[in-house]
Design a protein that fits this description.
The chain is of the alpha/beta class. 33% of the residues lie in helices and 18% in strands. The mean pLDDT is 96. The protein binds 5-O-phosphono-D-xylulose and cobalt (II) ion.
Length: 227
């Protein structure tokens, strides 16, 4: 089944608990952590993740857009994240970091900015539970989807298949009813959507519509779309 992860970056930060509950049919809640160094924007950190964990039953998918994730990522597992994504461009020791995240009980995920190729990191795939291919430059919600990332989604799906792995392949940035089919056809099976969900009159209905569209277009061999 295709998974839809609403990004709270597009939610009302003064009402985060309510905003989390507004999408309770969603698979994961995507939490964008930005440090104003790795990206030119600042959002939230460990205490907010701890509070969100208490406020909702949806598992938390923390996307760390921060420098030195080797140092900070484990604290997000302790705070209650079920999945922690670090940017490979920022990680000093990605294998060690992925192992540490998994050893602490969360899913480990590696993100790639639009211009970062997957091929140099092929050997890391068995250490991971998910790869995130960014479909906009990280830092802000509401940006236009970058079509130039579609070939990388396809190549990443092929590498996952070649290695016989059941990794999830997440896309994040500009995902909407206008772009989700292209992502699903290319092989993505986990879809982050911020403005397309929280900008809708009925966020829960927007999640359901996106999921249905992704499943119809889904790549036949991706583990989450083939049942
Ligand atoms: O990580 C990021 C942005 O850096 C995302 O998770 C955005 O929050 C997605 O927002 P939309 O592009 O869907 O509005
Ligand atoms: Co994100």
């Amino acid at each position: 089944m295709a998974q839809i992860n609403p990004s709270i970056l597009s939610a009302d930060f003064a009402r985060l608990a309510d905003e989390a509950r507004a999408v309770e049919g969603a698979d994961w809640l995507h939490v964008d952590v930005m440090d104003n160094h790795f990206v030119p924007n600042l959002t939230l950190g460990v205490p907010v993740v701890e509070s969100l964990r208490k406020a909702t039953d949806i598992p938390l998918d923390c996307h760390l857009m921060i420098e030195d994730p080797d140092r900070w990522a484990p604290a997000y597992v302790d705070a209650g994240a079920g999945s922690v994504t670090f940017h490979v461009e920022a990680a000093a020791a990605p294998v060690r970091l992925a192992r540490e995240i998994r050893a602490k009980g969360a899913r480990a995920s590696m993100a790639l900015k639009p211009a970062t190729p997957i091929e140099p990191y092929e050997d890391l795939l068995p250490e991971l539970d998910m790869v995130l291919v960014m479909t906009v430059e990280p830092g802000f919600g509401g940006q236009a989807f970058l079509d130039v990332t579609l070939p990388k989604i396809r190549r990443t799906r092929k590498l996952i298949e070649r290695h016989g792995l059941s990794l999830w392949l997440q896309v994040d940035g500009g995902v909407s009813t206008a772009t989700i089919e292209r992502c699903a056809e290319a092989g993505a099976d986990v879809f982050v959507a911020g403005s397309a969900v929280y900008g809708a009159d009925d966020p829960a209905a927007a999640v359901a519509a996106l999921r249905e569209q992704a499943e119809r277009a889904g790549h036949p061999t991706s583990p989450t779309t083939s049942g």
